[in-house]
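User: Run a structure prediction on this.
Assistant: Running it now.
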Amino acid sequence: MNTEQKKLWLHPYAWLLIAVLAVAISSIIIKFSSAPSSVAGMYRLFITVVIMLPLVPWKVLRTIRLTRKEWMVLSCAGFFLGLHFLLWMESLKYTSVASSMVFITLQPFFVMLGSFLLFKERSTIAGSLCMAMAVLGSFVIAWGDIGISREALFGDLLSLLGTMAVAVYMIAGQQVSRSLPSNLYSLIVFLIAGTVMFVYNLVNQIALTGYAAEEWMYFALLAIIPTIFGHLVFNMLLKHIGATNVSMAIIGEPVLAMILAYFLLNEYLGTAQMIGSFLTIAGMGMFFRLRARQTAVAAEAGV
């Protein structure tokens, strides 16, 4: 284990599992809420920022020196995170959890392509095949849900666009997060993302107040569970294991969300979903096993 990993309380992949479990719950909470998705997303991020304020190492601000380019990349990351929340959360209003979240599985492909084009970061053939297997499993899940989501193509399109947006966020974050403490980086991008949604609400004259106490409970839960224990942890892990590994783990989110939706929302769960889940989990397991071997070999070689 390298010095970067020793700074974490748990192994990076243990944190990754916690984060994936946390974000899988977000779709269920969103489905329970009747507030506009842009409002729920905005308060989700702003409440997260308030919670994080005491956790940020403010004393190090004097020592941080970001270039103009780094500030632009940081702003880009926050903007596309806000765009992701706006598009993906809205997609859940039009389609089922399984159909909406299946497009999240395309994220590692977008991230891998962007990382290669920008940073020349390569993936092995075996790793790419494992990734393809995991993605295939998620598409099998979606195919089994086609009878429900056939009339919800708009929701599927929103989810796809949201996945592209979060891939840009991951790639930008991988570059600039190394220059900032994790908590400070997360606070800045969450604040920018929340502001994006705030502007969207103002432009579209969506009410910002007048919601029932139950809705505020959902806003708080979205901030604490999938944002603090999910996206905040993902941000922390970007500098430890990279955007490709983080985005690969997120492929497991649709499987967990689908299972939760079956028990909590009575959404359909059939043979295709079961087979697809197995393929997704198997592909992810083999991918991370390959990564672990590569890390061990690199450590022995002193790389």
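Residues 11-56+65-301 form one domain.
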